[in-house]
Specification:
heterodimer, A: 287 residues, globular, B: 337 residues, mainly alpha
Chain lengths: 287, 337
């Protein structure tokens, strides 16, 4: 019972951390049709910034988090303008190669400046302490991640379904040419959604650093995980991504607890099975 | 695109002689480059043999990505299958190098059959993800089955018997290198025939427009599966060659990194061109050897910048640039690959 409970808590928190990072990728892939393998690279940049801010500049956790999100978005704007804008609508292979190239560059450059070591992002005392939830205690950080995940999911749903910007975004996705003709500035819409997606990556990268530690090859190591989660959930679908993160997080955590020496074997076996049964992901739409 | 395909076809039919001449010249160049490597870098033959093994892997990716248009990031599965099969066979007493290569090819072909069957069920992104999942799964399986594969320590302790009973695989790797070079040339000639055959043309047609090929009455799935098997055999030979020459098979031979790197080599050299695959491999691994010795992170930045540059400036890769620089060659020779 004890084990089941701790597995459940860890799986849920891990799934939520994955969700915060992956939902941005799901948006870029589903709405903008770009296979952005460099998504993890931006999460890594955020982690480096947060670590630098806290350890060298001495700021608090909240400030570091904010700085890292802003910093990542600032970095992403020229990258979107000069690199990504050229591969919207290109063949898949082109997009894959371009974004792998960006990933390699980011890894090389960040490690040149910050040194090839594991970067820690120390938690504030309020998050590091265990929290009593009645019948047992849970690490405060786990609860924080879960809350963040739920807030992000709700916020995105509201943004896309209920706001004027969401309407423009959906119109652009359905038919970019027609949206353009109706006076929607599609380039701006793309740029903003790209910034939102990377901001979420940055947020997830910092918040989820306890599960996915920030290290020199972070972008490459988790590139596959993020891509897999999005394709299992169905690109562009928020509930799909949530479901995929929870299912894959549960499978991964359970396998790690019960059969640690199998590594990622069950994770990838499950992925193959799911993709074979749902070629478009759980809730992906027909293209 | 159609017009190009037509003109290419016409060129193949009418300009058969120049075509043959050009391929003969290309082969001579490969052999000359191989011999030059032998004389110029006698201390680096182990590295050069590895280049040849990876070149076979890159050729096999070219068959799938360049000729069939199926994006894959998991080709190292087939390479690793060949390497482990050769290593295990050698440990169990089959030490004849030629036989080991055949065993590697067979294992690679089997793996290609399985991988193709799984991957061809899906399209687009799902296909790419499946290829990654397969290579990761194979990696974990090889790690777990340490009784057979040696796990993370690698499979070691086997030694192939001398080639033709006389040429030993010595410390300097001369035999291994020349053996590998001969194998590469042989495979290259065979693949030339494969891609110029009606079957190869059909594959290229499927790459351009699968729907049209289907409505013309051809079955797409079996054709692609056949190409997967051929590609698996080539990759398996590369793996077996690596196993024979280094006499150790590590987990890195079934890794996502190797798959991604070899795809990068192919794109650098030029998709859909057998020469491009070779050029890309040699240049990539040559640079890697020198630059990553200085600082591995400089190397990553460089590869990344190079990839971005290739995508933006030269989508045809280096061989595409050569074609553009020498348009006369292309018109006379007709077909590029």
């Amino acid at each position: 019972m004890q084990t089941v409970f701790s597995i459940a808590i860890d799986a849920f928190a891990y799934g939520m951390a994955l969700f915060i990072i992956c939902i941005g990728l799901s948006l870029t892939m589903g709405l903008m049709r770009v296979i952005n393998l460099a998504h993890g690279a931006f999460a890594m940049i955020a982690g480096y910034i947060a670590s630098y801010a806290q350890r060298e500049l001495g700021t608090g956790y909240a400030i570091a988090l904010l700085l890292s999100i802003l910093g990542t978005i600032v970095i992403s704007i020229p990258v979107e303008r000069f690199l990504y804008r050229r591969i919207y609508g290109s063949p898949q292979l082109t997009q894959v190669l371009m974004t792998i190239g960006i990933t390699f560059c980011v890894i090389g450059i960040t490690n040149f400046f910050f040194g090839p070591t594991l970067k820690t992002i120390p938690l504030p005392a309020s998050l590091a302490a265990p929290v009593d939830i009645g019948f047992r205690t849970v690490a405060g950080h786990r609860l924080f991640v879960m809350a963040c995940g739920l807030v992000v999911a709700a916020g995105l749903w509201f943004l896309i379904e209920k706001t004027a910007f969401g309407i423009k975004l959906r119109a652009t996705v359905d038919n970019a040419g027609m949206a353009d003709a109706l006076g929607i500035k599609t380039q701006v819409v793309y740029a903003i959604s790209f910034a939102i997606a990377l901001g979420l990556a940055a947020f997830g990268g910092v918040v989820g650093a306890e599960f996915l530690p920030i290290e020199p090859y972070y972008a490459l190591r988790y590139m596959v995980t993020f891509l897999v989660v999005v394709s299992v959930g169905g690109a562009g679908s928020i509930p799909g991504a949530l479901l995929a993160c929870l299912v894959l997080g549960a499978i991964d955590t359970t396998a790690r607890y019960l059969m640690p020496d199998f590594g990622n074997f069950f994770f990838y076996a499950a992925v193959i099975a799911i993709v074979c049964v749902f070629p478009r992901g759980f809730l992906g739409r027909a293209q | 695109m159609q017009a190009i395909a037509k003109s290419r076809q016409a060129a193949t039919v009418s300009g058969g002689n120049t075509h043959l001449l050009r391929d003969g010249l290309g082969l001579l160049l490969i052999i000359a480059a191989g011999a030059a490597g032998y004389w110029l870098f006698p201390d680096n033959l182990a590295l050069l043999t590895r280049v040849i093994a990876v070149a076979l892997l890159v050729l096999s990716i070219d068959l799938i990505v360049g000729y069939c248009g199926v994006a894959t990031l998991g080709q190292a599965t087939l390479y690793g299958a060949g390497a482990y099969a050769a290593g295990m066979a050698c440990l169990r007493g089959v030490t004849e190098p030629m036989t080991l290569i055949v065993i590697g090819a067979a294992a690679g072909a089997m793996a290609g059959l399985v991988m193709g069957t799984i991957m061809l069920r899906a399209h687009g992104l799902a296909q790419l993800v499946l290829s990654i999942a397969i290579v990761q799964l194979a990696h974990e399986a090889a790690n777990k089955a340490s009784a057979y594969t040696g796990g993370s320590d690698g499979l070691a302790g086997f030694s192939p018997s001398p080639l033709f009973g006389t040429f030993e695989f010595d410390l300097w790797g001369r035999t291994a290198y020349l053996f590998g070079l001969a194998l590469l040339v042989l495979v290259f000639i065979l693949l030339k025939f494969v891609v110029a055959s009606p079957f190869g043309m059909l594959c290229r047609g499927i790459k351009e427009d699968p729907v049209r090929i289907r409505s013309m009455g051809a079955f797409v799935f079996p054709v692609l599966l056949k190409m997967f098997i051929i590609s698996g055999a080539v990759a398996g030979m590369g793996g077996a060659l690596a196993a024979i020459s280094t006499q150790v098979v590590g987990l890195d031979s079934v890794s996502f990194e190797l798959s991604a790197n070899s795809l990068v080599m192919l794109v650098l050299g030029g998709l859909g061109s057998l020469y491009g695959a070779l050029i890309g491999t040699v240049i990539f691994m040559g640079f890697e050897h020198f630059v990553s010795a200085i600082n591995p992170f400089h190397w990553m930045t460089m590869v990344g910048a190079l990839l971005i540059a290739v995508v933006l400036v030269a989508p045809g890769g280096l061989s595409g640039l050569i074609d553009r620089a020498l348009p006369g060659m292309r018109d006379k020779g007709g077909q590029r690959p």
